[in-house]
Each structure stands twice: as structure tokens, then as C-alpha cells.
Amino acid sequence: MNRQKPASLSLTQNQKQAIRELDTNILVSAGAGTGKTRVLVERILHILKNNKAGISELLVLTFTDKAANEIKVRLSERLRDMGLERARRELEQAAIGTFHGFATRLLKEHPVESGVDPDFRVIENERADLLKDEIVTTVLETSFQESDEAFQLVRYLGETAVRSAILKLFATARHEGKMFSAFFKENDLKRNALLERAEKEILRECERLIPKLSGELDETAWSRFVKNQQWDWNTLSDFREWKGSYSSKRKEGWKEWRVLADELAALRMEPLAVPWRAHLENLALRFETAYESQKQEENGLDFDDLQIRAVNLFLDPRPAMRKIRDRYQQRFKFILVDEFQDTNYLQTRFVDLLSSGSNVFVVGDFKQSIYGFRGAEPGIFLARETQSREDSGWIRVPLTENFRSRAALLKPLNEIFRELWDEDQFPFEALSARAEPDPRHEGQVPVEILVTHLDPGEEKAHARIREALAIAGRLKDLHEKEGVPYGDMALLFRGMTMSGIYEYAMKVFDIPYFIVAGRGFYAQPEIRDLANFLTHLEKPLLDIPLAASLRSPLFHVTDSTLFWLSRWAKTGDERNPLAEALKEKRYEKIPEISQEQKKSLAEFLALADELRGLKDRISLAELIDKTLERTGYELSILATPGGARRYANVKKLMAMVREHESFDRMPLARFLVMMERLEVQEVRESEAQISAEGEESVRMMTIHGAKGLEFPVVVVADLGARGGGQESKAVVAHANEGYALRLMNGVTRAAEEPFSYRKLDEKITAREREERKRLFYVACTRAKSRLFLSGVHEIRKNPKNRYGDMLTWMDWVMTIGEKLGIPKASDHDRTPGFVKKNADNFREQMERTLKELVPAEGEPLPEKTGLVTTILKSIDLPVSAYVLFVKDPLAFWRAYQIGWKTTGGDVEGRVPSGTDDEESVALDFPPSPDPRDFGTAMHAFLECFDIRHPEKYLEEEALDRFFKRLGGEAVPKARNILKKFFSTPLFRKLQAARKVEREIDFVLNERRGLIHGKLDILFQDAEGAWHVLDFKTAEGDAATARTSGYDLQIELYALAVHRILGFTVRSGIIYYLENSSAVTLDFSGQGGGLEKTREKITGLQETILDFCNQKMGAGKV
Questions:
Q1: Cα–Cα distance between 247 and 241 in angstroms, integer?
Q2: pLDDT per residue over 941-997, tens digit each?
Q3: Which residues pair with 1000 in a beta bridge?
Q4: Of 374-388, 648-662, 1009-1023, 1081-1095, which gets the smallest average pLDDT?
Q5: Which residues pair with 741 in a beta bridge?
């Protein structure tokens, strides 16, 4: 890993201009690898050398302390070389730092004028996030306890969506520097103006279109709907039913009319959003008030406060305040801003207020703006570029001579991104090479596409395994055949969710690797070990924290000991907690536990009892310190691989705890709740990094983490994964555009998008698509000599023509690769992209590795996989895993026990609950159907449709919402299937049911582990009997149900209903939608407890455990 180091000290003409032009505002548009930081440093040196300003008269703003320190280090070295010792001594006092750092300095100098306590403390981001999360919880709990109207929003959207919406709105408003009252007021004005324009546009379009449809359209009905300003959900249903009667019309004008009708419906929904917006704003204002009050109590300001107050200080029109602003404008003769493409509106305003008019120098690259999720506004950079072209006091200086990548690599890179951005009419500026050639890579193909073809019927997760192995094999060849050091290689990902697969591949090929900030901080084993023990201190009767603590390096209790403890505790009553076996040293009576292990248990109990007695009397930091001291945990983890980093993580946790406690005492219970919520919400705290680790290892890291770095060889991996996050879209928001709320149809319970939501979501989606391209550009331009683009390629039934509309980066790569003739290397068909003399060896290595991955029956996995050989005594799995095991044990092994979660492993092709790729459906309604998957769309439809009035859902409008994106045949196919279902005795039984519950999540605690799943429908018939119903989109019958394991699935559902809800299930029904076949399993003969099913499940769990232990070479349970 290296930072950019120009091959020569000579400057390009444009660099010289950027450095020496001092009499005007300069915007440097610096392409990747063009030496922007060097230019910024050299400009400062030029100013100092020519006595244009002293070091104290410069203001240099960056976004991170790391970047600021790098600038200082470079300046220090150059000042020493130039003999400017005085300036070098003054460097530490120079105003070189972050935006919030300078704002802190400003407020400390003028506390009275800015209205802050002189002794205020800065609340770091991590602490502020925890505080906000805690306050949201309090606001929602208070709203519930007081039964106020605003809590209806939580019932309407769900707690997670409301929590996310409040925090999203708060961040959005702060990026504009506004409090909620002003933000909401401006939002109302913008929305009202938008709706007024839309109303006029619709009326104008009516006048143009309606005459074309004269004689066919019921103009009276249309006019009635248009003039009615007070629609309710029934009116919307009536309108869609009426509109659907014209669905077969194909005459000129009808297509435009249908679009216009959709716009009208969206517009008429707006009044229905008013009460829900009011509830959201009510809760948001309460949150803001509580957050401001808590900060005041702590005498603290967060990063946004610092910048907002600094800006407000300079905006104050009073003469005394104006003098302060004038003083700073005179003090700083030159202002320099690094990474300007990542600024937001507030930060840009701050710079403008500090400027005296023509002394601002900003450097950045629009193409590398990848921090939209943090509020970065790349449009600001483009606006400044426009200013520079209009001769408005700004000069644009482009830097296009690249000092990083060799010429052979830059040529295809330029062609790739010119092609990718051409559809956007973006003026892409090609990079030219200034880097010295690397003899090790001369004559080699600079860009290769590593294609892993998705075979028919293959799960994408398995194809991803093949991709990972192909990458590892290629890197092995580079090292062994071409002499490329592993330390020269980097493997980049958009996210580290699936990095475990690629780690495994590295282990298979014996390649040293180093993960840079892989999993989230709170998910690291050392952090989980401490969290589990602390949880046990607070809640001693919970099984999982106790078991996890005992078997951790804190106490070294074996799985065998845990098994006998659990067996002793739960014999007679499975509900007994594991802690029962530890009471009064009952474990001493268990002969199967060794004396050494009994000693470990005694030490655990002694420490736990002691610390439980102290936890409410000492600080949390002291509690953790005592735990570490008494267990020797720090020495234990230092002795493990990666120990230095794990030790650093523990120290980081301690620093975080002490930082929290510097504001207020942190009770253990409160700390545990916050840690749990942070992990659940996937708040990513980067791991503590140890720079010495992995120097001769392949780096595995995110693209965001690689920004600013460079590597001789780069592999951009997992290009077949879809982009997009898990964020709730119940509310969309943008600092400059306001916010909008999605609704739930009061009749159909389906998601509805009012006009303002639709328009804002379109803008935000467009911005996200633009950022996808920029992120890909950043990834590819990290390479100095060789670039490999790797991913699973799936043939699309309806391929898109525009790159912005394509689903994956691999779609881009394959399309562009065909146009430009970029070499491809496939795991099925080796092309010249691989060195021919190595192709056969590599193929053999791949085949051998795949055999190792799926060994013959009874053969354990090889030890080099790194898997533990401890005998498994219990196993937690979803229902789909049991079904898959019955169907194909080896497929089960690949999907669940090697360590990777499948993205399509559910029996219906849906994403199983709890997997990393799962759509976070709790945040929204309904789950968005996967456009590739008819089954997914059908399940989404069946989850939402109105059982009492199904005929409304056979209309084109309703079916289009779920199936239109799947292609022309999907809608008629769905209509045909649903018509048949609605005419069956089973559906009539559903309609007559006393009660129908849909999409019920459950966790079943069985003897050998937890079983979790989600059943489609549970209903109580007219006679009072309960039935479980599960839909299958394929064809099938009773024989299919047995061979596919679906009968087992239904039995598990019935058992879960009985054990958790206490209902006796009379029957389970599997309904095959494709051929309208219902398979019924009668449970009435089993008795209420479903004892046969329980015995069957216990036996199956033991079979699975034996199978897994055999595969790991660990023997049987």
C-alpha cells in the first residue's frame, strides 16, 4: 500500500499555474493520481517563500485529522529542505485542520459573541450518535406511554422506520445548518410550490390530450375525478378501477393519458399525507428539543453545532459581529480547501463567509465524490466549475497528468469511463500518463475481466464461491509465476458483507491476507466476548451470554463442559436457564466435567459474583478494567493471530467508555442497550488499525477505505452484487430539496407514493446512480499497473441499454468489455487474459479446490480451511436450512456450515430472514419485489392483497405494481394464477375465516438449537380450528412436497404455532400456485403437542450435527 508519490519533482504547466496564481479564486479539478495534495502543499510553500503571507495567515481546511496531519508532515519536510525553520516551528500553531476543528477554535476565541460557554466540550461523532439514538428511544417510549396521537405514526410505519426517519431528517436539516422549525417551514413552501405547478401542468395536459381521446374516454367521469380535491383511499380505488377499464386502449394519446392519470392519482394523495407528516414533525421536534437539552446539560456541542454556530456568528448583521468577520477575513490572506467535492452547503457557506473575495483555493474531483451518505454535495463543485467558466472571479485549473498509473493501464481506463459517462453528457477529461513504467508488469495485459458465469439453476452464493476461488488462483499465479509480492495486491469491495467467502478462498490457496476494517467494530470477537460477559453480569439468567462468556478466551470452558451443564440444567424442563447448573456449585456433581474445567467454572463464578456486586458502585471503565485484569484477557488475545489489532480494539472500547463517562455516569444496562442497538442498526465503527500488520499480505478493504491509496495490482471484486443499502425509504430527504413521506393505502395496505415523494425519490435515486459510477471510478483508479474486474455474470432476460439502469457493475463491465475488446478470463473458458502457460495449472488448481470445498461423503474438510474441529453440540438455523438438508445435505453444507449465508437460499428463492443480503422489510411496506424473481413478486402480492375483496387486485393497475417489471408475460401469468386461486375451496375457506394472520416471524427453542422462520399465513377457520398455509409458486403435489422437504417445513411451522402461540394446529396446507394444487397434512392424529413432529425435529437436529462434525473431522455428538 502506498500513497501517491510522483515519479519526478518536476511540475506540469497546470500544476505550476495552480501553485503560482495568487490573485484570484482557484478551483483545481484534479483527476485521480494527478498530485492534488502535492499541489496544495507546494502552493503553501510558494506563498511562504515569496512572503505573500506568514504561516499564521493561512487557513487550510480538510475533512479528517489524518489528512490534516499528512499536509503538516509534508510541509514540515519541505520547509526543512528549504531552510524555512521559523515557519517550520510555527507549523503546529497554524490553522491547518478540519472544518469542525477550526470552528471549535473560532468559538473558543469568541464564546460570548457566539453564545456558548467558554468551557464547552466537543461531543465526538460516536458519542453524539449514541446520544441521539437513546433520545429517539425515549421520545418514542414517552409517546407510547402518553398515548398521544403522534404515536399513531409508529403503529403506521413501525418503530424502526420512524426512528430512521427522525434521524435522517435531523441529519438532513443540519447539513443545511437549520433547526427543524425552519427546515419544515421551507419544506412546506417548496412542496406547495411543486404541487401548484403540477396542478397547472395536469390541467394543461388535459386540454391537450382529452380531445384526442374524444368519443372513447368518459370525459364526465374524468372531469369529476380531476375536480375532486378531497380523495380518500376508496376514491383512489374507484379511480384505478375506472382507469383499468381503458387498459387495452392503444390509440395515440392513451399511453400519455395513463401517465397523466398516475400523476393525478399521486397528486390527489397529498392531502392524505398531511396528518402523518404532522405526526412525524411532532416527534422530530420533540427529539430535537430533548437532544438540545441534553447537550446543554452536558455543556457540549457536536460537530454540526460547531459549524452552524460559526456560520451564524459570521452571518450576524450587528456591527460588532461584522467586525469579527472582517477581522478573520483580514487575518487569513489565503484559504485552501482540500477534497472540495465532499463539502456540504453549510461548509461551503462557511468558506464563502471567511473569504475576502479572491483568496480561495479549492482542490478536488467531482468524479471522486463518494460520500453522499454523509451529506456531501458534489453539485457544489460543479456549480463552482460553472462559475469559473463564466469569468466570475474564479479560474478552473484542470489536472489530468497522472503520476500513479502506467500508460498501458490509463488507455483502457479512459475508454471505460468515457463510455460510462457518455450517456450523462458528462465532459470526461482523459488522464495522461506521467508515471514511470514498472518492469515487472511490462508486456502484461493491464485490464482483465474475470468472469464467473452463473449456471442455470445455480444459487448466486455458490457462484460467488467460484468467483472468490478464481480470484485467489489468479493472485497465486501472479505471485508464483510473475514474482509480484502479495503486499502489492489489493482486493476492493463496495461492502465487506460477503468478505468471508473471499477470506476462505485466500486460505485455500495459502495466500496471506489482511482485512482492513472488515466487519463492524461491535461485531469483532474481542468486543463480543466482553459484551457477553457484561450482559451476563446484568442478566445472569440469559443462556446465550452465559454460554458465550464461558467458552470465550476469558474463561476457556470447553464445548463438552457446556453440553453437560446444559443437559443437567434442562433435564426435566427445557425452560430452565443454563445458570441452574452453576447454582450452589451443582456442576461439581456432574462426573463428565473434568476437575480442571470445574476449577475454571469456580473462577468464573467468583469473578461474576464479585463484579455483579460492584457494577452499580464503580464506573463502567473500572468494571471492564477489573474484568481484563482478573482474566488476563489482553495477554490471551495478544497471543492469537492478529492479536495486536484485537488488543487495539479492546483499548479503543475502553477509550470510548471513558469518553462517554467524561460526560455522565454510564450504567451497565444503558451501555449494553446502546451497544446492541448500534450493532443491529449496523453503525460501523472502524476497527483500530495496526499499521505494521499485513505488510506482505493482500489487502482486503472497502473502496471507501481505499480512497487516497494506490496499489500496483488491484482486484475490484464481487461486481455481480447489487448496489444500494438497507436504509428505510419510508421517508426520503435531501438538504436542498426537503423531505417527503411514503404512505400505506388504508384499503389495500400497499405502499403508495404521493406526488411530492415520487418527485423527490426520483431526484435522490438519480443522485445515487451517479454516485455508483463515481465509486466505480475511485475503485479502478487505485491501480498503478494491473486491474482485474471480477464478478458473477448473470444473463438478463431483458437487458437494459443505459448503464444507469443496469443492476450491477458486472453488467457495465461485460457491456463495455464487449465494446472495447477488453480481455476476459472465465472459469468455464480461459481466454488470453490468463497467461497461456499457466492456464492448465490454474484450471487443475480450481477443480481440485472445488473438490475440497465439496468433499466426498464422509470425508472431513481439509484443515487448511481454518475451520474449528471442536464438536458441535447445538446449532441455530432457519427453517429453510432444515428443508435444504433433507433435500441435499451437501448443498446445505455449502450454504450454511462453511460459513457463508446464501443470498437465495430459501426454499422459494426468497432471501432467508437474517441474511446479510436481506431487504430490511421491517423498515418499509411492502417489501419491494425482486424484478428477476416471479416467486418473490408473487409472495409480496399475497402478503398485501385484501382477502375480502380480491377482485380489485386482478386489475392491471394493481398487478402492474408487483409484476410489470418482470417482463411482458408476468402480468397475465400472475392474473391467471390468482384467478384460479381465488376460485378454489381453499380461498373461500380463507375468506370465511374468523382470523387471518400473515407473515409471522418466529424463533423456536428446540433441544439442539434455535430454529427461526416466517410462515405465510396462519388462519382460524369458521369452526375455530387453526391451519397453517404456505404458498409455493412452482408446480407440485404430495410427492413433490415430500422430496422437496416442504412437508417438514409445514410440520415445523405447526410446531412453532403450538409452542409459541399455544394454538393447536389441525392441518398444514402447501398450495402450489402454478398448477392450483393443495397438499394437506393432517395433524389431528398427533395430539395437541405434535409429539411425533418434536421427536422428528430432535432427531433431524442430531443428524445435522453429526453430519457437520463429520465434515469438520470432529466426530459425532
A1: 10
A2: 887 777 877 877 787 777 877 777 676 678 888 888 998 999 999 998 998 888 888
A3: 1015
A4: 1081-1095
A5: 731
Measure CA of the first residue to CA of the last residue in the chain; give whole Å. Answer: 46
What count of other Cβ atoms lies within 10 Å of the Cβ of residue 568?
19
pLDDT at 658 (0 to 100): 83
* 674-697 residue pLDDT tens: 777 655 443 333 444 444 344 688
Distance CA 703, CA 127 (A): 26
1071 phi and psi, to 5 degrees? -110, 115
For cell 402447501, the residue is 1070
- The three three-digit cell numbers of residue 993, written as one number: 375465516
Rg (CA), the chain: 32
Alpha carbons within 13 A on the beta-carbon side of 258:
16
Classify residue 797 as exposed, middle or buried by CB count within 10 Å of its CB (0-12, 13-18, 19+): exposed
Judged by DSSP in three states, 572 sits in coil
659, 127 contact by CB (below 8 A): yes
Task: Judge contact between 731 and 740, C-beta under 8 A.
Answer: yes
Tens of pLDDT, residues 330-348: 999 999 999 999 999 999 9
123's enclosing H/E stretch is strand 121-123
Q: Please, what's the largest Cα pairwise distance for the chain?
A: 96
β-pairing verdict for 1065-1072 and 1077-1082: antiparallel
Q: Which residues pair with 899 in a beta bridge?
A: none
Instruction: Please give the grid coordinates belonging to residue 383.
Output: 456549480
Look at residue 538 and give its three-state secondary structure. Answer: helix
Task: Give percent helix, percent strand, percent coil of the chain, each to the nearest 5.
Answer: 55, 15, 30
Residue type, 740: A
Q: What is the pLDDT of residue 956?
A: 75
Q: CB–CB of 867/1086 below 8 Å?
A: no
Exposure string (b/e) for 215-228, b if CB count within 10 Å is 16 or more? eebeeeebeebbee
CA–CA–CA angle 560, 565, 568 (5° rounding): 125
Residue with cell 428443508: 883
300 φ/ψ sector (left φ>0, alpha ψ -120 to 50, else beta): beta
1038 with 1079: CB under 8 angstroms?
yes
List Cα–Cα distances, 497 to 684, 693, 903, in angstroms: 12, 22, 11
The highest-confidence range among 229-233, 569-573, 671-675, 1102-1106, by mean pLDDT, is 229-233
Query: How far apart (Å, rounded) are the C-alpha atoms in residues 370 and 774?
Result: 6
